[in-house]
């Protein structure tokens, strides 16, 4: 088990007051190493909050979260930072690339934070770019790349540290259909190679590429037909 959430709640504002906003309601989720999981939901459903909790970018109000054998909610800020840097790769809808830097320099950034020597950073960055099909674009800057190629650079940056989990938030949201399909093929390749993927999306077609799909509705997480039964009972 690489990710285990138990009874996670997240409330923004002071709980129990008129200004409090519940975002996650008693969410439990278990993800094994090597799994490919999609979490679907519309805007405002709580899916981004859930991603932030899984990615150790935000702490829940209550509940239990284990990342491997680590009790995340008992970790200090520096420990959480190290966990994010070394064990979680992030892919966002917006690519968050540095426009003045080439692909190698963008991909090598996490390695720089980790104190990896420059020559080794460059070697591993080229290796990651090759894995995502950009061996012939390693010296290109973002303004010289297409949207799909930019997302591939972002994915290379996410995997350059060989993270235990790749966490993707709407990874095809800024892409056309063809580029989005190519990114999904790449995700499948990475998963086949053993990368654990947790993907957040509002698109059922994108979610269908995962091997296990959940839906989040009003901060509650449902697996398979459980969500449909919930809707039928309301």
Task: Tell me about this structure.
β9 (212-217) and β10 (220-223) form a beta hairpin. The protein has one domain: P-loop containing nucleotide triphosphate hydrolases (Rossmann fold, 3-Layer(aba) Sandwich). α5 packs across α6 and α6 (147-159) packs parallel to α7. The chain is of the alpha/beta class and 234 residues long. The protein has a 6-stranded mixed sheet, sandwiched between helices. Strands 2-1-4-5 form a 4-stranded antiparallel sheet, with helices on one face. Helices cover 35% and strands 25% of the residues. The protein is built from 9 helices and 10 strands. It has helices spanning 47-54, 77-87, 103-107, 109-113, 118-131, 147-159, 177-192, 204-207, 226-232, and strands at 3-12, 21-31, 36-40, 62-67, 70-71, 88-91, 165-169, 196-201, 212-217, 220-223. InterPro entries: AAA+_ATPase, ABC_transporter-like_ATP-bd, ABC_transporter-like_CS, ABC_transpr_LolD-like, MacB-like_ATP-bd, P-loop_NTPase. Residues 3-234 form the ABC transporter domain. It comes from Pseudobutyrivibrio xylanivorans. One of its GO terms (molecular function) is ATP hydrolysis activity. It holds the Pfam family ABC_tran.
């Amino acid at each position: 088990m690489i990710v285990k959430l138990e009874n996670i709640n997240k409330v923004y504002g002071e709980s129990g007051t008129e200004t409090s906003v519940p975002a996650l309601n008693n969410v439990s989720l278990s993800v094994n190493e090597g799994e490919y999981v999609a979490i679907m939901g519309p805007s405002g459903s709580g899916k981004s909050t859930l991603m932030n909790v899984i990615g150790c970018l935000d702490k829940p109000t209550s509940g239990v979260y284990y990342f491997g054998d680590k009790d995340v909610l008992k970790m200090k800020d520096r420990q959480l930072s190290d966990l994010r840097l070394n064990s979680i790769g992030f892919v966002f809808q917006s690519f968050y690339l540095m426009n003045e830097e080439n692909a190698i320099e963008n991909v090598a950034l996490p390695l720089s934070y980790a104190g990896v020597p420059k020559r080794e950073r460059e070697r591993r960055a080229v290796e990651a770019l090759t894995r995502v099909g950009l061996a012939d674009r390693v010296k290109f800057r973002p303004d010289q790349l297409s949207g799909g190629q930019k997302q591939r650079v972002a994915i290379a940056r996410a995997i350059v540290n060989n993270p235990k989990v790749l966490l993707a938030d709407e990874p095809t949201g800024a892409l056309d259909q063809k580029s989005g399909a190519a990114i999904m093929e790449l995700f499948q390749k990475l998963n086949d190679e053993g990368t654990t993927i947790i993907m957040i999306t509002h698109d059922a077609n994108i979610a269908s590429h995962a091997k296990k799909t959940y839906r989040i509705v009003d901060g509650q997480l449902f697996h398979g037909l459980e969500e449909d039964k919930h809707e039928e009972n309301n």
